[in-house]
Amino acid sequence: MNRRALLLIGLVALAAIPSLAALWLAGPGGDDGAVLIFAPSSFAPIEAELDAGLAAEGIGPVGWVFAGSQSLVAQLVDGAPADALITADLSTFAAAQAAEVTWPDERLITFNVLVLAVADGNPGEVTNLEALADPDLLIGFCAVEVPCGRLAANITSTLGVTSAPDTEETSVRALTAKLIAGEIDAALIYRSDAQTTGLTTVPVDGLNSLTNEYWGSGNDRGMEILHWLGSGAGQRILIDSGWGP
Amino acid sequence: MTPPARRPPFAVLAPAGLGVAIVIVPIVGLLQRTPWSSLLNRLGSDTVVEAIRVSLAVSVVAAALSLVLGLPLAWLLARHDGRLVGLVRAAVLVPMVLPPVVGGTALLFALGRRGLVGQWLDAWFGVTLPFTTAGAIVAATFVALPFFVTTVEAALRQAGTELEEAAAVAGARPVTRLLTVTIPASRDAIMAGVALAWARALGEFGATITFAGNLAGRTRTLPLEIFLALESDPASAVAVSVLLLGVSLAVLVALRGRWFTR
């Protein structure tokens, strides 16, 4: 064997070994028969509970793809493979229908309300929604481009509350993380996020007058999961984590 | 001696071509999605103009800080040896290889108002860096400084030693030597370092969104605007991306004397 051939084999091996290692590390991908559900990131904290509930009924396995609702729709428009899509509000679901990335079957899954959550120990001594306009407090919102921000904007204008945000985060998860870190004093976040992370909330009348409806659509395999989410077992997990009534 | 030019073998051409494709294809994809007819309108919208304003302020101040803090640092690293100097050099380079989101998390827990240093900033001076333009500048400087320091340190090592010695023999004090001999001799590298630091600061995303938050007119820089627009108005996100691509290419062309042709 001449040197050039040896060099060539060496180079191929150099490329192949890490590639094979990466494939092995990445494990079975999305095409191993799992049902691919594109779900809003607010579902991420209860992934384990949902998987356990589904496994108990012999459904699945499910591959969850979590992201902001609009990102999910954008991924589907760009051709990402999915068996079902769940969005965290109706207007994003309507956008998905308009973009023709939904299936004929659809259903309401659950709904979410906003709560006034405060940092650990309530350092800003927040007692009501007027705090959202207090320039001396650090206040966080979701950006109006994402569902939780749209709901927050609707609620504050309905209740006639002004706001002075110090940050407009691109997802409710990012906003929740800043509350947990104690870097902001108060924020309007989903009740489910407050409940799954154990954040303190301040009771406010009227905050639950507006809700974000979670709608889903899928093919036959996807709808099986969505119907399970709508069943007694699925609803129990969701309600225990802050969704629904 | 260079061997006579002939066609490179396929075993070299194929992976090299693939390497070029990995870089070029995404850029072509971006340009192909660009809304050329409405590009100027989208870049002139209030939200984008506001993000350009924040981005320019943050990146220019971060580049200036990199120059002011980085030049003495680079000089120290170039003119001294030893274990401590090696440790400092390694520490300064960490942001170059650290995922920016890790940098942002570290900044949050160090300089946030409950952080190691941040709690004292808050208690003594009433200063809270997160969610302020100053916080975005700190995040941008964190990632930009190493680019300046590495570029300038390498140049200071190569150039100036003999001239500095000559100046020393002539009786010039160290600071005088630095100002009158070393800095003028490495002017090109210093300018390249500033340009690289500025470009890195302009493109900063992960550390900013983690540490400085995201508020229009205060901390929402162009990369954050792109990320947000992807949620609601992808065409505008592409338009702003093309703007930043153009700026990056401009920086490369400006630096071509150093890297393009070598």
Ordered list of secondary-structure elements with their pairings:
The complex is a heterodimer of chains A (245) and B (262).
Chain A (H helix, E strand, L loop, with lengths): L2 H24 L8 E6 L6 H10 L5 E6 L1 H9 L6 E4 L2 H9 L7 E7 L1 E5 L20 E4 L4 H13 L7 E3 L2 H9 L5 E5 H7 L2 E3 L9 E7 L1 H11 L1 H9 L5
Parallel strand pairs in A: 1-2, 1-3, 6-7, 6-8
Antiparallel strand pairs in A: 3-10, 4-10, 5-8, 5-9
Chain B lengths: L9 H24 L5 H5 L2 H34 L3 H15 L2 H12 L6 H8 L7 H26 L2 H9 L4 H12 L1 H17 L2 H6 L10 H11 L1 H21 L8
Structural write-up:
The complex is a heterodimer of chains A (245) and B (262). Chain A has a five-stranded mixed sheet with strand order 2-1-3-10-4. Chain A has 245 residues and is α/β, with parallel strands linked by helices. In chain A, strand 6 (139-142), helix 5 (147-159) and strand 7 (167-169) form a beta-alpha-beta unit. Chain A folds into two domains: 35-111 and 213-240, D-Maltodextrin-Binding Protein, domain 2; 114-209, Osmoprotection protein (prox), domain 2 (D-Maltodextrin-Binding Protein, domain 2, 3-Layer(aba) Sandwich), CATH 3.40.190.120. Chain A is built from nine helices and ten strands. Helix content of chain A is 41%, strand content 20%. Chain B starts with 9 loop residues before the first helix and ends in an 8-residue tail after the last helix. Chain B has a single domain, classed as MetI-like fold, CATH 1.10.3720.10. Chain B has 13 helices and no strands. With 262 residues, chain B is an all-alpha fold. Chain B is globular and about 65 Å long. Classes of the chains: A alpha/beta (245), B mainly alpha (262). Chain A binds chain B through residues 4, 8, 11, 15, 68, 70-71, 74, 138, 140, 143, 145-146, 165-170, 174, 178, 181-184, and chain B through 11, 15, 108-109, 112-114, 128, 130-131, 209, 213-216, 219-220, 227-232, 234.
